[in-house]
Structures are given as structure tokens and as C-alpha cells.
Specification:
The protein has 152 residues and is of the alpha+beta class. The chain is built from five helices and six strands, in the order H-E-H-H-E-E-E-E-H-E-H. The strands form two sheets. Strands 1-3-2 form a three-stranded antiparallel β-sheet. A hairpin with a 5-residue loop joins strand 4 and strand 5. The longest helix is centred in the last third of the chain and has 14 residues.
Length: 152
């Protein structure tokens, strides 16, 4: 895969950087289209795969198994706690997980060990809605509102 920076990769990264939480490739494509950026969905997927391969994004899966993307901070790989209702995410301290994965690698002699840790819950905002007698706005469907968590 080419590592050159293309106009499309730059546009995808710029749009992704404007998002506070994880977004799908379809959401990202919709945001780019709304900004009149001429780019195909396949190109968005290709750019996201490149960013994942080069360590530029963190990836999680939603309840349906769809991959969601968020720019990776300069500090490197992180794990997140994601609200099952609204999709809000927050990084969590995962040093113990990283040390455990490294120990497994060392103990087994495996190389290129990768791991996935996905934590979900209900954030305080969604829980407070439930506490007031209303059901929390669960079953967040990002495709309904692609601007829900992204800067314009």
C-alpha cells in the first residue's frame, strides 16, 4: 500500500480529526459529501485502512460489528469506554492490558501480537435521562445524524 499523502487521504484525515467520537466510514463519507468534497466511499475505506495500518487511527466495532474510527492521539494506541446509548467515548487507562499483552507475547514467543479490548456502558448524561423516568436514548444509530459528534 502506498504511503504517499494524497488529496483524498488528507481530506479524510481532516474530517476525521473534526470528530470527537468514533465514526463509521459511511458517516465520514457523508460529512465529506456535505462539505462538497468529491470522494467515493471506496476511497474513504481505502484511506481509513491506510490510516489504521500506519497507526493513525484507533478502531472499535459497534454492536452490529461495523468498524468505527477515531484519530489516534500522539501518545499512541488507546482503549476507550463507549456509551451504548449516545456513542460518546472516553479514553481509559489501559496500562495493565498493555503489560498483560506484552507478557503473553514474551511467554509464548509469538511476534506481532495484537489485542482488542472493547468496553461499553451508559454515560452519565444518558443515565440521568433514565433516572428522570425517561428511557435513555439508547441504540444510537450514527447514520441518522452524521454531524452528531463532529465539528462542522
Amino acid at each position: 500500500m502506498s504511503s504517499r499523502r494524497t488529496r483524498q487521504r488528507t481530506a479524510v484525515l481532516r474530517a476525521l480529526t473534526g470528530c470527537q467520537d468514533f465514526v463509521s466510514a459511511q458517516e465520514l463519507h457523508a460529512l465529506l459529501a456535505a462539505d462538497s468534497v468529491p470522494i467515493g466511499l471506496t476511497t474513504v475505506y481505502r484511506a481509513l485502512r491506510h490510516l489504521e495500518a500506519t497507526g493513525g487511527v484507533d478502531v472499535v466495532r459497534d454492536d452490529a460489528g461495523e468498524r468505527l474510527y477515531r484519530t489516534r492521539p500522539a501518545e499512541g494506541h488507546r482503549h476507550y469506554l463507549i456509551c451504548r446509548c449516545c456513542g460518546r467515548s472516553r479514553p481509559v487507562n489501559s496500562e495493565v492490558v498493555e503489560r498483560w499483552a506484552e507478557r503473553i507475547r514474551a511467554d509464548t514467543g509469538f511476534t506481532a501480537v495484537e489485542h482488542t479490548v472493547e468496553l461499553t456502558g451508559i454515560c452519565a448524561d444518558c443515565q440521568s435521562t433514565a433516572d428522570e423516568g425517561e428511557p435513555p436514548p439508547c441504540h444510537w444509530e450514527p447514520a441518522r445524524d452524521p454531524a452528531h459528534n463532529c465539528a462542522s
